[in-house]
């Protein structure tokens, strides 16, 4: 009675959401370079980047002074 015939496809009772656009950009546009992405990330997280730069510089300087002291 309410059984649809096999030739007609059954549709769900709730409307389906439209599919989102494809996240992959078209081939004609190039993705931003890694340098641009790194610069944008460094500007966005400026405090953390400066802290890591200072920590790295201090550690390298301490290593060089320590090696110079040991090999005098």
From TrEMBL:
Keyword Cell inner membrane applies: no
Compositional bias annotation for Pro residues: 15-29
InterPro entries linked: DUF3285
Compositional bias annotation for Low complexity: 1-14
Transmembrane helix is among the record's keywords: yes
Transmembrane domains' residue ranges: 50-70
Residue stretches in coiled coil: none
Spans annotated as Disordered: 1-32
Keyword set, alphabetical order: Membrane, Transmembrane, Transmembrane helix
Record's protein name: DUF3285 domain-containing protein
